[in-house]
């Protein structure tokens, strides 16, 4: 079951990031997402990003999606994780390998989104609870 849940979270995270340019964020008062100042790169190229979030009132599945860019490396999705929109602050952590180009230790830019997929007829539409961009430092782990 945990593998199935992880796969669902990663799939939903990727879909949320793809939709981010199309739908503006509309965070309710008190909703937010943060990105930690440091991310990690493992020897195999896996990147781990983390932070915290607070969201409320989700009626559909919710998740935190993240992406990273660095120099000439365009934005790369870095996993997705399930979110609880219960009004309490929670930690998030996403890991994944960038597709195509490898990232290196040093300065990078992270985009993180707390999003819900809300049913609308037969479709699931993204409802953005919070998003943030932050310059970080990637370190070898």
UniProtKB/TrEMBL annotation:
Keywords: Signal. Residues 1-27 form the signal peptide. Residues 30-140 form the DUF6299 domain. It comes from the Bacteria. InterPro entries: DUF6299, TAT_signal. This is DUF6299 family protein. It comes from Streptomyces nogalater.
């Amino acid at each position: 079951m945990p593998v199935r849940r992880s796969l669902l979270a990663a799939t939903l995270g990727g879909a949320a990031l793809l939709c981010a340019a199309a739908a503006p964020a509309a965070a309710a008062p008190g909703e937010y997402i943060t990105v930690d100042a440091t991310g990690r790169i493992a020897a195999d190229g896996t990147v781990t990003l983390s932070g915290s979030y607070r969201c409320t009132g989700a009626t559909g599945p919710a998740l935190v999606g993240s992406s990273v860019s660095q120099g000439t490396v365009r934005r790369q999705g870095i996993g997705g994780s399930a979110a609880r929109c219960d009004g309490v602050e929670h930690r998030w952590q996403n890991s994944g390998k960038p597709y195509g180009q490898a990232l290196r230790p040093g300065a990078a830019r992270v985009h993180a989104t707390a999003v819900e997929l809300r049913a609308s007829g037969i479709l699931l539409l993204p409802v953005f609870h919070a998003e943030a961009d932050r310059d970080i430092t990637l370190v070898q782990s």
